Amino acid sequence: MNRWLPFEWIAAVRFLREGRMQTLFIISGIAIGVGVIVFMSALLTGLEANFIKRVLTSQPHIQLIPPDQIARPQRNGPKVLEDAIVQRPSQRVISIDQWLKIRDRMLALPEVTAASPTMAGSALAIRGAASRAISISGVEPTSYFKIVRVPDYIVSGEARLTNQDIIIGIELAKDLGAVVGDKLNIQAASGTTMVLTVTGLVDLGNKGVNQRTTYVALRTAQSLLGVIGGVTTIDMTVQDIYAAETLAKLIEASNHVEADSWIVTNAQFFTAVQAQEISNTMIRLFVALSVAFGIAAVLVVSVIQRSKDIGILRAMGTSRGQILRVFLLQGGMLGFVGALLGSAMGAAGLIYWHSAMRLADGSELFPLILERSLFIDAAVLATLTGLLAAMAPALRAAKLDPAEAIRG
Amino acid sequence: MADEVLRLENVCKVYNVGRPSETEVLHDIDFALEHGEFLALIGPSGSGKSTLLNIVGLLDRPTSGRLTIKGEDTSLLGDAAITHLRGHTIGFVFQDHHLISAFSALENVMMPLLADAGFPSPEITKRAQDLMARVDLEKVAGNMAMNMSGGQQQRVAIARALAMNPDLVLADEPTGNLDTKSADSVFELMRQVNRESGTSFLVVTHNLDLARRCDRIIEVIDGRIAH
Ligand SMILES: Nc1ncnc2c1ncn2[C@@H]1O[C@H](COP(=O)(O)OP(=O)(O)OP(=O)(O)O)[C@@H](O)[C@H]1O
Ligand SMILES: [Mg+2]
Predict the structure, then answer these.
(1) Residue A341 burial (CB < 10 Å; 0-12/13-18/19+)?
(2) Which chain B positions have a beta carbon within 8 Å of A402's beta carbon?
């Protein structure tokens, strides 16, 4: 008999050990429940982390654009409108007013880690008989590559952007039949034409995007799109990605620009995460409930089976409190052991899934994130669930009339 | 008075008070048990012997009347005090052995000590081993309770009843399920403990042979003590 275990623990362990089948089945039940929760939570965390990582290395955290151009209805004297139907003006390429000043002001903010001006517009890429509509991003490579990791996405060639260079999406390259080193004719809507050399092909992970995206030097884009010295956006990264929206609001309030944070641009993702989280919570709740009822059911039966033992223990001077604790402990132990097994099962499943589920190119579908806190939470919650579930059976055991229990 | 382990005065027991099935099982029971006395309780089936033993053993409370144990009026005690008094002054031996199957024989003997101390200790193990030797079972002390013969189990039960060195051992038909030879040796063991340690015994039995070997016999008929 273990010398450091108090009476209640010894009795609880022995009772569980003697009720082999019941104990085994209920622990398996708990383990499966906990395993599913651990697996699901870790998978979700992994997918979310993966998505956020992708988003944050291929998108600016905050993007500044010129304020929306709103048409004002013309008035014919007070309160009389000339024409009630107001058409939205076509949003022509327009530069951010005093963008250099704004950029410097942004860089001065402690929350901002990088800011880079971009000249964006659309044009036509022509190679031989093939032509495709493209969107052009004119960037300053040194600052822009800190925000969007273009070099990380290069699949052939290099991320070099001098005035005669162009980096294009892999699908666009396929459509045009172009490879690194080829020359492309780029024609802007205004009629301006330039011949640029393909220096690199990028894969941004999305077919549509890969069909349209091109990067050129800022100056090249400016002259191509006919907005010399202007920029259409200022892209930024910030320290705390989750504070991006708050910061965007602040920037809008004190500058004549519109600021969009990644949180707003990816609103769909957050809605999906939220929906996922709600269903996850529901699943957790119901798994916990069924685990609790399972534990309670097993212990209720155990109390009935052991009523004679309980009566004898009481006759030998065991107090009601001690009997109560013996059964509470059984609930707690079932929960704890079940959680340990379940965590191991969940982790094993996750590791297997992680190695089995690969993307076409062999890279991982989701990063393997096994946070210690997940397992600690699972163990603590399962133990508490066990204790709570054991409450009713334990009270019943403690209240047993010893004379009656012994008579059987 | 000081020499009395036990005194019952006008003890009545009514089951199912206030219900149609209300039955008065014990009527005005009066008797005392002296230190070191070995008393036999006999009577026909259903006469209320077990009920009386449960009341004396503080497992049940009398409906009216007074039960005094070692000079202490138990009607004034709360549940915790009752449990404590029971644990420290009374040992039980039941007819069906009633060992706890989850434990070995030795551990069964340790249980009262363990419940009282809260933690295991070498002293507790030592005391349980001594008791097992006293009932001649030191060789099978480690066996699980269920793997022993009826006579052996009853000896373990006696050792367990003696664990807390009680003033009084209550035995409800301790030999009822045993063959004559085992019954005799179990009875002799109790008598021996009674002689050597001065522990009082109150033994319910249907066996008149054994009853005659006790210091005194009380007969219960229809819930009354017959004279
Ligand atoms: N919990 C109870 N509720 C109602 N009646 C009871 C209860 N316990 C015992 N009785 C009744 O009290 C009477 C005495 O029972 P008790 O068990 O004390 O008799 P006994 O003398 O021990 O009999 P036996 O020799 O068969 O063991 C019986 O008629 C029994 O039916
Ligand atoms: Mg009886």
Answers:
(1) middle
(2) 59
